[in-house]
Target: histidine kinase
Amino acid sequence: MIGPAPVSDAARNGIWRTRITAQARDLSRSTQFVIAAALILGLTMFFVGNLVSVGIENAAVQSAAEAGAQYMDTFLEPYVQEMSRDNGLSAESVQSLDRLTQSRSLKQHIVSIKIWRADGTVVYSTNKAITNHKFPLDEIREALKGNVVTDLKDLDEDENEFERELNLPLYEIYAPLRDSSSGKIIAVGEFYEKADSLKREVNQVREQVWVVVGAATLAMLTLLFFIVRRGDKIIQQQQVALRLRLQEQTRLHISNAELQRKIATATQEFSRVNELTLRRIGADLHDGPAQLLTLILIRLDDLVENCSAVDQESLETIRGAATDALREVRDLSRGLALPEINDLSLVEELQLVAQRHEQRTGTKVTLNLARLPKVAPLPLKLCLYRFVQEALNNAYRYANGEGQVIQAQYSDDVLNISVRDRGPGMAADAMLLEKSGRTRLGLAGLRYRVESLGGLFSIDSCASGTSVNAQFKL
Model:
């Protein structure tokens, strides 16, 4: 049976990072800020506290070393004056130094003493085993320059074997020893002092520093936390308010979309019913008044044969009026009843309406048709037919049919159609659709037809002609 494949360390680390990131995102902004601020501010304060502690420690050690160096110079310098001549210590001086190191007052603080020549040779030491031995030390060179050198050390050099066996915390001090007459440095004195009290003082100061730094860090973090938390609450309240507004806007948008859908459906239904009504009116005109007028004309023909000359003249007048009435009724009937355009494309529909207008008026209509959709809904077809028909009628009535052009193009899901003429143009008040009148009523009807399908209607008119425009988003 084959077990699951082992997971590599890289994959395991990636999984843990993903989990930690996901958990961090679930935290509030104030909590995320406090964690980030604690890391950044904590590291900063750690380095600051450490720097201050080290500075205080170095200052305390250096101060103690300088005080100890002055104290030891008083004891050691009288015994090394002969080194300015002999470059060494006599037996009497060594014995005197031994007695000095054994004194009770000195042993309370100093545990070991060494005297160095300038070449790094030990001429005196509490540990007699290293006397007259040479050790390379940087501290000797610094002390020969007149500096007091000190350090809390681990005492790991070869020359510190005796001090290591004491198993005590010590710090060593190198002090220059001078000739009393010339002030020239003739030797270097080294002594090891117990560091118990100094370490206690340094640790106490370090603790105080860390307490102050920690308290300041905690205070800043607390203050920042409450500031960020207050801001976070305000942001959360605003987010809730915005979310509620967004939900309300979404609800209103859905409601508006539903209303627009219902309006569009109602508009299409109204357009269909309107066309059916117009067809019925046209049929009623054809079957009613037109038939009656035809009957009147037939009866007039019968009466003409049995009437006098005077009566025949009156009958001819009546006959002419009836003929004109019959022609107008038939024209109205044909205008109200649209042809069957359901199976026609938009190009064929526009060609048909132009052809009918040319036949009815005896004028010329130019077609500038670009690529048009092959399929369009019936309400749009009805609207376009009536739009072009009414615009051409206005061009014939007010521009004598001069320069009649139908232009249509389809681009980026937008259908643009316009009917232009080269007439004298329209007066400014003539384009006010709110006023009454046959022309304004026709223009208002055009605008209402176009806008009912969500289109845009406009009129451009100047002294060189008029353009009636419609635009539809398909």
